[in-house]
Fold these 4 entries.
Entry 1:
Amino acid sequence: MEPIAVQLNGVSKMRKRRIIGPIDLAIPEGYVVAILGHNGSGKSTLLNMLQRVVLPDSGQIMWFGQHYEGELPTELREHIAFVADGGGSEEDNITAVEAARFRAHWYTRWDAKFFKQLMDDMDVPYDVKLKKLSKGERRKFEIAAALAARPRLLLLDEPSSGLDPFAWKVMVEQFRNFMADGDTTILIATHIADEVKRLADYIVLMHRGQSLGMAEKDVVLDQWREIWYEGDLRPESIPGAVESKQEAGAIRVITTRVVEAQERLELAGNRIMKIRNLELDEVLQYWIAGYAPTLWR
Ligand SMILES: Nc1ncnc2c1ncn2[C@@H]1O[C@H](COP(=O)(O)OP(=O)(O)OP(=O)(O)O)[C@@H](O)[C@H]1O
């Protein structure tokens, strides 16, 4: 069995408008996991609980197989890096060089050479107070500093926020290189399909404070198809059919079992006109409605 980076057992947090949880989740070590969900679904609360900025009201969290009462010990915290979604910080009035010096003290695996290389590649100035950087530059600095910490657990809240499309493309390359030669587990809270498509290995879907499970990204993107066909086969008899509609003499059916569906249609002598993969947001809509893809474990 794969080693687990973080495990949540019945973790919940009471918020004014809703309860987040109870969440049961096991995140395998060394993968990129996207926590997907609409606004207010509990993604940031989950990330905050994983760095103990927010304390759960009940349930248990394990980090690399260990449970801790109270504050997380330094030996663990120096292996966790977090990039929040915007906002200033206590580092506002210092430069990137000074911030790097500070972080090098804190993170024992700090990689100064890698930090410089990332900052140069992304063209971020070193000698300007962090609060004077543009939104995108600040974001790049935060991500460079998080990667240079060589954390075992990296928590990212909407990493592409504030980056222009070109900068985001460069950033994706940096993440991929980073993942290729490291053992870091990355959790990305997001509702941006491109972040998921380009980076994630797994998807966790959060909805109204609940986790609807975790599935491999490739399964999520591959399993759902829209088939258009002509003929007299009733859509309800097509394997995996979850929805169908008659339009302009053709039938449109959504299925999770495309191979069997195709066989059934061909066997019945119906003509398949078009088959299309569903987009991520379409799949999520069905997942939320109760038609989950094949879940991991
Ligand atoms: N500090 C807080 N105090 C009270 N309620 C909070 C607090 N932080 C978040 N909430 C509430 O908890 C729920 C989940 O919020 P959270 O920020 O975790 O969602 P999210 O999925 O990250 O949303 P978004 O996509 O908008 O960033 C929301 O209803 C929010 O109003």
Entry 2:
Amino acid sequence: MIEFRDVTKRFDDGTIAVNGLSLVVEAGTITVFVGPSGCGKTTSLRMVNRMIDPTSGTVLVDGRDVLSVDPPTLRRGIGYVIQQAGLFPHRTVLDNVATVPLLSGWSKTKARSRAAELLELVGLPAELGKRYPVQLSGGQQQRVGVARALAADPPVLLMDEPFSAVDPVVREGLQDELLRLQAELDKTIVFVTHDIDEAVRIGEKVAVFREGGVLAQYAPPAELLARPADDFVASFVGKDRGYRSLSFVDASGVAVGTAKTVSEPAAAGEWQLVVDADGRPQGWAAPDGSVVPGGSLYALGAPIRGALDAALSSPSGLGVAVDEHGRYAGVVTARQVLDVIESRRG
Ligand SMILES: Nc1ncnc2c1ncn2[C@@H]1O[C@H](COP(=O)(O)OP(=O)(O)OP(=O)(O)O)[C@@H](O)[C@H]1O
């Protein structure tokens, strides 16, 4: 557990970067600090591993005031991941990851075999271990950064905008990977971002900061979207927050109907769903038999936002549901989805 108790940081030039911050980061959760540029997220994060010390107030890690622990000892229990990964350019990927175990006195063989395990854990093929950082893509470098931070198996992981230098598709992949890793590792993670979508996607709790280093709201994502504490939070989480909050409502209540399925498109005077031999949707055939691209799929039981998006994006007006194997399971209309949303409003 990490606790900030009335923590303020004033830099020598008088800038107040963090102002009276009090919050608790529960053990084994991902907490996200989000807010516009310059509102004190990084400063708050760095006060956890003593890269910055507070001017007043107390930061506790597992009940101990961090100021009572010398920085090297403290940092052995705290992994740190930054934007651009911060890898050593002249060391191979494997040796980058093995750095901390080596510094902790492990033999070279043991440190390297641990590093190889970690590369696998973050989803990188073993061959990449021999390369140098510059020979990897941005997304791969970030994975190496995560592997390196995990090398000493620290209970706490601090991540400062770790995925902001990669493109949106790779970024979503890295977010999924982090969630998968976390389900396995159960670390206490503090993650800094200025992207509200990233925050609500990966955070179990989200702390929204405003200018002047003030905490505006600290809540689970669904609550943040449904009940922003004030106008600042409402505008920061965005005007489409109503739609976004549908990510936290599951689609299980939506009755699934059926569409006509075919294996070869043909003119049939009605919309037909083309499926492959295993029943996986391939696209829609229009009444004249032409194949029309478009239409997302959603998994049964997934968030209702996916069901609505599937219906709205479908050329036939029918959103296609698939089972856990990706096979056609039924269709819904946008009207059906909206009725369920309305009825849950109570
Ligand atoms: N060493 C320093 N001396 C003086 N002011 C500083 C120093 N470091 C940070 N600041 C100021 O403190 C405030 C908070 O900075 P911080 O880096 O914590 O913000 P942030 O929310 O992480 O921003 P960003 O999203 O742009 O990284 C800013 O106004 C910044 O200019």
Entry 3:
Amino acid sequence: MKISIIKIGGNVIDFPEKLDAFLALFAKFPGHKILVHGGGILASRFGESMGVMPEMVDGRRITDKDTLDIVTMVYAGLINKNIVAKLQALKVDAIGMTGADGNLIRSIKRPVKSIDYGFVGDIQEVNTKLLDTLLAAGLQPVINAITHDKKGQLLNTNADSIASSLATSLAKDHHVNLYFCFNKSGVLIDEKNESSIIPLINEDIYAELKKESVIHSGMIPKLDNAFAALEKGVQHVWIGKAENLLLAAKGKLSGTTIERHRYDLY
Ligand SMILES: Nc1ncnc2c1ncn2[C@@H]1O[C@H](COP(=O)(O)OP(=O)(O)O)[C@@H](O)[C@H]1O
Ligand SMILES: CC(=O)N[C@@H](CCC(=O)OP(=O)(O)O)C(=O)O
């Protein structure tokens, strides 16, 4: 079957009117679809209000015990259940899940090397059978950034990595497209100029733009995840503005398409 994995970032979730507009588009999105969400901005804000200061390294959150409790409440509770309720109101039969539900995503606590990320999970296994069953039953999974180690420990996992892993696991048996929706029009040459979209990025262009620091911070893990997905059989990866999601689905020019192949110069 054809499956679309759609990831929505914290910058959109944080603005109720932007989230509502996005969910209305998601409801109209054709075919089988899975929504993956983060919510890092809200988690940071909640943490700060409780005296737990956010600490990020390379776009990943250092997650101590208090932070794990906060992200579990925010991602698996507040954000996930609100999105499910809003989608149900839009007549989408959404079902909200963490990686622990139905053993959907098993991860392991990231080994301590130069940095101790704490309770951060690296994905090991995705229960694609469960996703197949849910999709075949007409349900639309809404999956958040909390995973588990199957030994009783919840872990915090970057939502871009979750989207990419779900896409690559499902791509073994299905035609899978991956859409990263965020608050900018795409990958930009000049971050402050929304019309400076780079329509197509391959690995050569990526390496060059990274070297020149045109691409930095949160965009690096997003693009690493995008290339990893293409390498493992995902058909199409798109990065762009949440409001252009339906244009992207129709193949209309909007945002950035990620292309795997390097161009042969000779
Ligand atoms: N060349 C670029 N074009 C667009 N955004 C960029 C670029 N380089 C870095 N970024 C940054 O990456 C961010 C998106 O990554 P992230 O915050 O992880 O997204 P999300 O909203 O999905 O969580 C943008 O908000 C922007 O600040
Ligand atoms: C380990 C790790 O970094 N987890 C992320 C999960 C949420 C996320 O990815 O949210 P966005 O998509 O809104 O950035 C975090 O806690 O920020």
Entry 4:
Amino acid sequence: MASSSTKLVFSPPFTSSPCSKSSPKSSSLLSFLHHTTSTPVSLKLSHSPSHSRCSASFAVSNVLKTVTSTETSVLNYPQDLDSGSSNPRPTILVSEKLGEAGLEVLRSFGNVECLYDLSPDDLSSKISSCDALIVRSGTKVTRQVFEEAKGRLKVVGRAGVGIDNVDLQAATEFGCLVVNAPTANTVAAAEHGIALLTAMARNVAQADASVKAGKWQRSKYVGVSVVGKTLAIMGFGKVGSEVARRAKGLGMHVIAHDPYAPADRARALGVELVSFDQAVSTADFISLHMPLTPTTSKVFNDETFAKVKKGVRIINVARGGVIDEDALVRALDSGVVAQAALDVFTEEPPPKESKLVQHENVTVTPHLGASTKEAQEGVAIEIAEAVVGALKGELSATAVNAPMVPAEVLSELSPYVVLAEKLGRLAVQLVAGGSGIKNIRVVYRSARDQDDLDTRLLRAMITKGIIEPISASFVNLVNADFTAKQKGLRISEERIGIDSSPEFPVDSIQVQISNVDSKFASAVSDSGDISIEGKVKYGKPHLTCVGSFAVDVSLEGNLILCRQVDQPGMIGHVGNILGEHNVNVSFMSVGRTHRRKQAIMAIGVDEEPNKETLQKIGGVPAIEEFVFLEL
Ligand SMILES: NC(=O)C1=CN([C@@H]2O[C@H](COP(=O)(O)OP(=O)(O)OC[C@H]3O[C@@H](n4cnc5c(N)ncnc54)[C@H](O)[C@@H]3O)[C@@H](O)[C@H]2O)C=CC1
Ligand SMILES: O=C(O)C(=O)COP(=O)(O)O
């Protein structure tokens, strides 16, 4: 049983609910895997006393019905693709050229429309009839697109890596999942980087144009050798690493700057990780491979060019925006930068009269980094599978604005996800109207190791359950944290370790709402919070605790909670009233504090009782309070 030898209590210590039957053990901090938003989620380490003063709980009847399917659609889109439509297949808009193999995957699942020349306005007016949108780098998926989608757009697939053309904040706010295809074009981009590096060093493009113009200028196009030269890779991620590997093969000395790259990956490739200044000041060639973000925007500017080795050569297959293009023109004119080879531009296509593009020491390509047959087929399949998965309500391994949850974790958490949402829905309905909800505490009891319980899904579903009954907001895993923050909800999570089999991820989930009045006083625990607890039993969600009362009711259909004086005949009495009004009881459970004192009756009902039925229940003399809750 319990081993509570470790007395780690982080302030404030949490007192376990009297309902909790599981004995606690030393608790540990629940790790929050990649919690990416700034939502005020706090997590505390606690140790609960090893008492268990649960009132006796007994099921009055056997389960008459089982809960409906607990199959998880964690994205929980606002409307069911299949409902109310003569054409249940989703509509997938592909706005840029996508490989045939990917289109095949999409066509097997939905109606695919390939419209490659949409203006921003056309896209905005088209989008409200689309469930998914697939883009490359040429389509700007702006806030306006999400607004005009009017809730229908469920997923944006970026057939490639860079997602700087998608307004991620807007996507998240609208609960639209964004997925990308981050691996299939890595080699293509690296090969293009090397092609530009060597072509630039040997003036291939300029010499080609010269010969085609009828000239033969051998001395004008004398190049530089790359062997023995120092190449600085800025951004040592997938593409950067592959460029490094190839440059090593060319006999270059490779250094890299990347504040987030693991040193062992660099070491394994024989690459030294250095500071930004060291990289730019020692390199003969600088190759850019970082994403365009607010931090990297125009990171190559006048100040940077003042630090480089005179005559440096620059390659950019990342994003045009990481360079201040006017500053680069100045550096080229002054000879500080000898040459540049650019695949990407701040504005694409760049203006015809662009000084940078027209510069004689600049080699350009029209964003061709990912454009090999092989990469495009790979990217198309990668994105099509991610989009189809997302449309089915699954999370993709390449989700950009939602946690990436492996399929096996999803399937394991599936019944707990259903439980979490139902607990959220119940808890919020127990709040008396008019009282503002601010602080929600979620307590997970689990035998799993701290790193082995990912609660993001559960938290999102509790948030959904709490918010949706009291507002018009639609909440899913993508926008749960954002929406909670918008509504001023503070959700804190706590994990209490228990001695039990770690076979199941969670033993119980408790939802507490603080500083509010309840319309059902018995739901308020000793600590003064509305508190309910649930468990998954036989794969189905059950309510196991209301306030200080233990109950056991399958969370199916709707629920009536009554507090009564514990005396014989109550179950029959209320059961008769419901039966007379044709309301089918699916489950009943009574929990009490002391014999013949107060008891709580939890009654699962298939149909919603009408006002008259509820009044009759309320009129039973021994019933002190009752509440009807929709699940
Ligand atoms: N021209 C083209 O057709 C293509 C362009 N790209 C571009 O290349 C970029 C990199 O792609 P991947 O290597 O696949 O992405 P990645 O995510 O694997 O690598 C990016 C690396 O940049 C690093 N980084 C982030 N901020 C940085 C900073 N301030 N300074 C230095 N490094 C920083 C990251 O730590 C990461 O290691 C993409 O974001 C995309 O914009 C990618 C594929 C094709
Ligand atoms: O994958 C990327 O980030 C790219 O830049 C490739 O862009 P593209 O799909 O060729 O428009």
